[in-house]
Amino acid sequence: MKTCILHIGGPKTGSTALQDTFREAAPELLRSHGILYPTIYKQHTPFWFAHMPQFQTNTIASRRDLVHVRRDGGSFHEAVLRDYARLLDETPASTVVFSAEAMMRVRDSEQVTRLAAFLRPRFDAIRVVGYVRPPIEWVSSMAQQLIKAGRTFDEIRSLMRQRDRGAGGIRIDYRMWVEAYSDAFGPENVLIRDGRRGQLVGGDVVEDFVSVGLDARADALGLENRNANESLSGEGAHLLEHVNRHRSVRLGGPARRKRRANRLIGHMRRTGRGTRFVLDGIDLAAWARPFGEQLAWLSDRTDGRIDFRPTITDAPDVPAPRIDDVDRDMVLALNDALAEGERLRAQANERQAWQAFLRGAQDDPLPLLRALAQLDDGRVTLDRARRLMDRGHPECALQVLDLILNPTGDPVGAALQRKARRLRQEAEAAADA
């Protein structure tokens, strides 16, 4: 009997730790237990997006380093599904595990229907496991993530007041994904888990998922828990938000921004202070109250096993931590030092990748593309594209230009975009010649 287990998140429930744990586990050890955790791509998100024809294929291909499918929009879906179809058809494993919290962000039921149509012929049984948290607890954790990504408290409060997902607001919709997966795979195959630490088997999402999804113990499978996205204390969150307001941590693209935030977190942790973080300046209970209907539905759907309604009657009352000017000045100086160090490292890495590509030491431009994306300097990127054209590499130039025209970091200026579009026309003509 061949079984597929879909772990679909949700956000801020330990998904990253679970994915890191499975990905870094020795594949042969999992294989000895008849388990496959696919690693043909670094993450399983492309597998989910491949069932969304309307998605911006060039953007997601750029983010996931799928260089070979950047240019032809339709080929993204075909290439990813072809890779996974071959893997699933050939694997001798009796259990295949997929994990992507993006799978819980269901736009319409057709996405899940297409996913089911792909999986059903290949498996005898398919089970879905999703984790949920109470609204106030969840939004506090989401606020921390946004602070690490460079947001300010004012920006986060603005997002919380937007309940329309299309407007980029922070909202909760348990019902949409539960009903979509229940319709596609059967309600008996959709397991909703309470993501609060005290409700998890062993107090840990990895142990809980292995227990309920694989009917095993993590240590028996050789899984070593990889904790990720470590929480900030109240002081740490306020210090990092202070940096966000007074220094642009958006310089350098998402990956570098996250690393710098993580380094700052390490320094803040060593201060030895640790009050609980709660987003202030907004009535959390009032924000969560409109989700009461969703919470009532969730309670009914789980036969009362998960009832978050008591958690929204009263928001936690935790005063904002007091931080003196010395600490503020210190963390700004520390951030500036880290930013300058990362800028210099990114420049060195880009120069090294460029020289290696010119020497022919690399078979494809992927290392150069990664180095340019890390540097996140539109002028340097445009210059490299021009030089690639001059050296007779129009295909590579197109891939480099895609970093400017489909940016995953901060958008470049209009003048640079116009120059990049003109150069792309030249490159496309040269590539087709």
Overview of the structural elements:
It is a single chain. With about 425 residues, this protein is mainly alpha-helical. The protein has helices at about 15-25, 25-30, 45-50, 55-65, 75-90, 110-120, 135-150, 155-160, 175-185, 205-215, 235-245, 255-270, 285-290, 290-300, 325-360, 365-375, 380-390, 395-405, 415-430, and strands spanning about 5, 35, 95-100, 125-130, 190-195. Among the domains are: about 5-135 and about 170-220, Rossmann fold; about 350-430. Helices cover about 55% and strands about 5% of the residues. Helix 15 runs antiparallel to helix 16 and helix 18 (about 395-405) packs antiparallel against helix 19 (about 415-430). The longest helix is centred in the last third of the chain and has 35 residues, at about 325-360. It is globular, with a radius of gyration of 23 Å.
Using the 3D structure, state the CATH architecture of the domain at 3-133 and 172-221: 3-Layer(aba) Sandwich
CATH class of the domain at 3-133 and 172-221: Alpha Beta
Amount of helix: 40-55%
The main sheet comes to: 5 strands, parallel
Mean pLDDT across the residues is: 81
Shape: globular
Could you say which structural class the secondary elements and strand pairing correspond to?
mainly alpha
Radius of gyration: 23 Å
Order of strands, main sheet, comes to 2-3-1-4-5
Q: Could you tell me how far the N terminus lies from the C terminus, measured between alpha carbons in angstroms?
A: 52 Å
CATH topology of the domain at 3-133 and 172-221: Rossmann fold
Strand content: 5-15%
User: How many β-strands, per DSSP?
Assistant: 5
**Helix-strand pattern, N to C?**
EHHEHHHEHEHHHEHHHHHHHHHH
Low-confidence stretches: 56-73, 249-256
Number of helices in the DSSP assignment: 19
